[in-house]
Design brief:
Blueprint lengths: L4 H18 L12 E7 L2 E3 L2 E11 L2 E5 L4 E6 L6 E2 L4 E5 L2 H36 L5 H33 L2 E3 L4 E6 L6 E2 L4 E7 L3 E7 L4 H6 L2 E6 L2 E13 L10 E7 L11 E8 L4 E6 L4 E3 L2 E11 L2 E8 L1 E6 L2 E6 L6 E5 L9 E5 L3
Parallel strand pairs: 1-24
Antiparallel strand pairs: 1-23, 2-17, 3-12, 3-16, 4-11, 5-7, 5-10, 6-9, 7-8, 9-11, 12-15, 13-14, 13-16, 14-15, 17-22, 18-19, 19-20, 20-24, 21-22
């Protein structure tokens, strides 16, 4: 069956029109998206920083005082906060048993002195008899041995008496140096053992600030060159300090390191127990450029950052800039070269950029 030519003409005309439309001007490409980024204005700042920690005034030396003999404590002569001098009595024990021991040792000395005199006279007589050959040499040696034994026992008794007298004197607990009583750990009427702590004595002299240093600041605090101390009870005044001790091990509970900063020339106004603040100046005063670690963009072995140029109405374009670094300062990177003050560096969103891309600046600073 043959198709009529008049019926095929409209279909051919439609195909030609579609072909002409396809060969016409292509549609415009969609412009690149403007990505939002966070930037930081580069500034050369001083590397010096101050670390401030809370602390407490404590004595440089604190002694736990206790009796050198055991017994019943009959009197305590001090309270917390009492200022004492060297040799001042602090507490007393019941001296009865100690005095009896001293008297018993003295009696033994008297007895042995009498025995020694008898042995000495006996030895003298036997020597005379030996010179006349009335006795043997062995008999004389026995008398000499008896005298020497008695003399040795007398020396031992004298030493025991001296020890008993010393122990009787230990019934009085005295301060071994001037200072202030910071704690009392026993009361009158209590039976105490040898060496048991009765009081704690803070010696007069150096005072120091005890503070807890966090793990993240321990290294910087240890390397600090200058320390200053201020007291809440004495506002407006500061004292120079010196780091005396920094614990090598962290506290198992708080995970902090105990630091002891000695106060230089504290004066009489500084009292034990006052709350204080320690300021440690760390780092160098040399000007330097620091960037957050997130600002670095690594490609191969090169270290680069994205710089934003031609910012207008909050929109600019980015380009890569190679930089040289020289270590870390805490959580920031020190930049040795490649940047200048005033440069705008991308610090968030750098991994999604490409050279020449338009970006919208968020929080410029």
């Amino acid at each position: 069956m043959k198709v009529k030519k008049s019926a095929a003409l409209p279909a051919i005309a439609l195909a030609i029109a579609l072909a002409l439309t396809a060969c016409g001007k292509a549609p415009e490409a969609k412009p690149d998206d403007v990505r939002p980024v966070r930037v930081l204005r580069v500034e050369a700042t001083s590397g010096a920083r101050s670390i401030e920690l809370a602390g407490e005034v404590r004595p440089r030396l604190e002694t736990r005082l206790g009796f050198r003999v055991g017994g019943k404590m009959v009197q305590r002569l001090v309270e917390v906060g009492t200022q004492v001098k060297a040799g001042q009595p602090i507490a007393r024990l019941d001296p009865g048993d100690l005095q009896l021991a001293a008297e018993s040792a003295k009696t033994q000395i008297v007895q042995l002195e009498a025995e020694r005199r008898f042995a000495e006279g006996d030895l003298r007589r036997y020597r005379e008899l030996r010179e006349k050959n009335f006795i043997s040499q062995a008999e004389l040696d026995r008398r000499a041995s008896t005298f020497e034994s008695t003399d040795a026992r007398l020396d031992a008794a004298r030493a025991q008496h001296k020890q008993a007298v010393n122990q009787a004197s230990y019934a009085v607990l005295a301060a071994d140096s001037a200072g202030v009583i910071t704690a009392v750990e026993a009361e009158a009427g209590q039976v105490v053992a040898v060496g048991q702590t009765i009081v704690r004595l803070a010696r007069a002299g150096e005072t120091e600030i005890v503070a807890a240093v966090p793990e993240t600041q321990r290294e910087a605090f240890e390397r600090a060159g200058t320390f200053s101390v201020s007291l809440n009870a004495l506002p407006g005044r500061t004292w120079k300090g010196k780091l005396r001790e920094l614990s090598p091990a962290a506290d198992p509970v708080t995970r902090t390191y105990t630091a002891k900063v000695t106060m230089l020339d504290p004066g009489k106004d500084v009292e034990i127990g006052m709350s204080a603040r320690v300021a440690a100046l760390t780092g160098s005063t040399e000007k330097r450029i620091e960037l957050p670690v997130a600002a670095l963009y690594g490609k191969g072995e090169a270290i680069q950052v994205w710089l934003v140029d031609d910012i207008k109405d909050g929109v600019g374009s980015v380009r890569l800039q190679a930089v040289q670094t020289r270590g870390l300062a805490g959580d920031r990177v020190l930049v040795a070269s490649g940047l200048e003050a005033g440069n705008m560096v991308v610090v968030a969103g750098a991994q999604l950029l490409r050279a020449g891309q338009r970006v919208r600046v968020a929080d410029p600073g």
